[in-house]
Amino acid sequence: xxxxxxPPRNFAAKSPDQIxxxxxxxxxxxxxxxxxYRADGETDALLPALVPAMIAFHLPAGAKRPxxxxxxxxxxxxxxxxxxxxxxxxxxxxxxxxxxxIELKEVAGIQTxxxxxxxxxxxxxxx
Length: 127
Hints:
By secondary structure, the protein is mostly helical. Helix content is 57%, strand content 0%. It has seven helices and no strands.
């Protein structure tokens, strides 16, 4: 069963063009999912499109991309090579995009791609 919530007010106030501009460099499917979330508040379609794209965007230069794609079980640091700077940049990007405060200490314990999805879902649902 899917549930939808109103997107955060600051995010909902952004125009589709503003959102597209903030997501330059992200895949079209990711941008489309974010725009759908703006319209319907449904995170079930948003998170599987956004989180892997967000992680791929922040992978270090020269990092080897997983052959099976970025899946929920992959570990951010050990499997994907994301360091604390990349994780901080991701947190800032999500904070800026959705207008929800994300403290760096909150993301410090996040280990896997799936953990990022759960964290973001909880944060967006509570906004």
